[in-house]
Amino acid sequence: MKQLTGNQVRQMFLDFFKSKGHMIEPGASLIPNNDPTLLWINAGVAALKKYFDGSQKPRCNRIANAQKSIRTNDIENVGRTARHHTFFEMLGNFSIGDYFKEEAIPFAWEFLTSEEWMGIDKERLYITVYVDDEDAYRIWTEKCKVNPSHILKTKENFWEIGKGPGGPDSEIFFDRGEKYDPEGLGEKLFFEEMENDRYVEVWNVVFSQYDCDPEIDRKEYKELPQKNIDTGMGLERLVALIQDGETNFDTDLFLPIIYATQDMAKYPYQGEYKMAYRVIADHVRTITFALSDGANFSNSGRGYVLRRVLRRAARFGLKLGLDEPFLYKLVPVVADNMKDFYPYLQEHVEFNQKLIKIEEETFRKTLKNGQSLLDEEMNKADGKLSGEVVFKLYDTYGFPFELTQEIAAERGLEVNREEFDYQMNQQKERARNARNTQESFSKQNEELMAFVEPSEFIGYNNLSCKAKVIALFKDGHKVDTLSGEGQVILDQTCFYAESGGQVCDKGWMKSDGVLVNVVDVQKAPNKQHLHTVQVQDGILTSGMELICYVDTKLRAKTTANHSCTHLLQAALQKVVGSHIHQAGSYVCDEYLRFDFSHYEKITNEQLAQVEAIVNQYISDSYTVTKEVMPIEEAKKTGAMSLFNEKYGDFVRVVSMGDVSKEFCAGCHVENTAEIGICKIISEESIGSDSRRITAKTGMEAYKEIAKEHKMLENIANSAKSKGIKNIDEKVQNAYDQIKSLNKEIDDLKNQIFSLKANQWIEEKINIGTLNAYIKKVEGMDGKALKDVVSNIKGKDDNSVCFFVNVNGDKIVFVSGAGKTAIQKGVHAGQLVKQAAQICSGNGGGKPDMAQAGGKDVTKVDQAIQTVKEALSNL
């Protein structure tokens, strides 16, 4: 077996399949492109689903890739086991209706065992096949000469995820030897499928040959019209076997990160500290790659996942004595270690470090807040800390169970592990129920996939054309004639198909006695434009000659908006920063929407500057050029491209003077002056990692400007001004006056509260050794009552206040206690909570000040009496 680095293994895999006629597909971004079923790209096939379900045809039916992936469904195992990761690379080879089992199995065997490639000893490899897959068994034994004594037949070897393409699979296992078999069980570990570290799965080959439906028996599954091969091999796992690492972490893919962490830590990479190092090494790779691919930290979606990953790494850093932010310092180590295959990481190092450091510092503050909650709960605990509290500390503040347990033990307290586990399971159940239930793969449309006759788009410069009907479809089936609604494919078309964020064209098709409305245009699996039409008059027939007309008004407005998105991106990069890149867009005739990755709100000043620059670009009347050129040549021009977009050998480059140059297949104006004017309507967050700007151009922009002008006139009329000139100053003066009046009102209120406090302090009652102030009041909200309580507490340290305000069917309880009263055992939060529960409400707070609410006004007197009794028992 050859001794290779991780980078060499990856490259050797791709070189092998290139020699077998495979197109090497660049790995996709970790952020799925137009796939609502996935939070992250989580497998090599995830970015290729469009080929497997037949919705698109690849340029080559043989594909191989190295695909970065993220999975966090079992994050708690990362660091504990030898092979769990949140970020990993899947090496895969795929056949889309090309070769099948006869070639796929020998490919895997040759790559692993040939001396020219990996050179693994054949005797150390074991195979599993699906129990009914006689073809796979035959190929392994006859073509690959695998000893049948090394093959396990099992029912588990069948891959399916709901309805859609799936089928049997075959796995290859590597025997790591006796040192990973402490009990000396040998092959029993493999054939009885026992959990072990000796026989490790290396490769899985999925034979996607059936249209799966879990609701019926597998024997009834129908064969797919297009059979596919989907394989997967974890790079980290293969490298660990080659380099004989104790775990995946003991390889050159992780050790540089571990050693860099060790240089900062108090404890070495040994014994009980190994897990912490492994968690940090894994998680910082995840964070670095995810941020570089456009994700960010947030409280929902993938941003929440990323935040959780960082906090877990930071918590394990505490175990190593890393009390200050440190993860950001590891970003350059990750980028340097992966630069041979992922050079783009270098471009994002500084920006990623900034984001990670901010997040680490925020988490340190959160930990401090968690400590305050823990202290408060321990003060109340009677021998045992509830699992609900321990879970809240874990889930909200990032406290690991073990940390809480250790702190509690120092105070002589136990923690309720059963309650904690229950809360954890409840959370997992909620997460499971919240997952998207859409099927990951679509069903194949055999007739559309089989239609390969070419169709040419000529609509960049032609808004009408003559065309011939070459195919008609009704309800997914090919037909000879069409009435009502259906789909049409033409030999050539002037209608733009929806893509790249630009909506499709609409319009008409005509012939003698035939009138057809075009309502939608999408791309068919073989790239033809598939027109969804409504036949108004006559009947469409295959072979018919038509004259096609694009709705020119819609196209012109859409085109102006599309060109404006290019100028908008250029202006954002100039004002906000060069890191701004498109994360999505939507362009129609009414408005444009531009999504981009950014970590904070764009200020009003920045937004105004961006709008001004865009309109300057429009006014400068830049010529817009569109040129098709080889992709490598296009890259050399400095043209921007979408990071997660797949491009062919030739690309279309759209340039607007010297201010914008992008890869783009959409429709554009000839000169920026045609856009007319740009008006930004809104800027908003669509997740803390993404922002969205909505804007309008031309007449729609004018309407927005006119609407705002009318609004200013209305304000001027209300202010009894003769016009809108200087109306901003008048409004500001009015607000300043309101602010001054509010201050006077607050001063008067304070005087009233002080008088109330002085009045009520004379009405105290003695309960035990406490000075109690207990009253039902009217017309005072919670804030006002708290102000009175603060006044009384300030004058009497031995005071305990309990006030109730009833307003209709709503009750407000406010309680407070002075320092001396608290020392005697008074807890305002417990008092209001007890009263609120009697009155069908809830609430609580701190020992010195608390507020709660109730609904049942008939029990207010009972609540007051309960509070008096509680105080008398202290």
3D architecture notes:
It is a single chain. The chain has 874 residues and is of the alpha+beta class. The protein has six domains: 6-253, 2-Layer Sandwich (BirA Bifunctional Protein, domain 2), CATH 3.30.930.10; 257-377, no CATH class; 381-435, no CATH class; 447-550, Elongation Factor Tu (Ef-tu), domain 3 (Beta Barrel), CATH 2.40.30.130; 555-710, Threonyl-tRNA Synthetase, Chain A, domain 2, CATH 3.30.980.10; 759-872, Diaminopimelate Epimerase, Chain A, domain 1, CATH 3.10.310.40. 38% of the residues lie in helices and 25% in strands. The strands form eight sheets. Strands 1, 2, 3, 4, 5, 6, 7, 8 and 9 form a nine-stranded mixed beta sheet that branches. Strands 13-16-20-19-18-22 form a six-stranded antiparallel barrel. α3 (101-113) packs across α4 and α7 (255-264) crosses α8 (274-292). The longest helix is centred in the last third of the chain and has 35 residues, at 727-761. The termini are far apart. Residues 434-442 have low confidence and may be disordered. Its EC number is 6.1.1.7. It comes from Floccifex porci. It catalyses: tRNA(Ala) + L-alanine + ATP = L-alanyl-tRNA(Ala) + AMP + diphosphate. Residues 417-444, 702-758 form a coiled coil. InterPro entries: aa-tRNA-synth_II/BPL/LPL, Ala-tRNA-lgiase_IIc, Ala-tRNA-ligase_IIc_anticod-bd, Ala-tRNA-synth_IIc_core, Ala-tRNA-synth_IIc_N, Ala-tRNA_ligase, Ala_tRNA_ligase_euk/bac, DHHA1_dom.
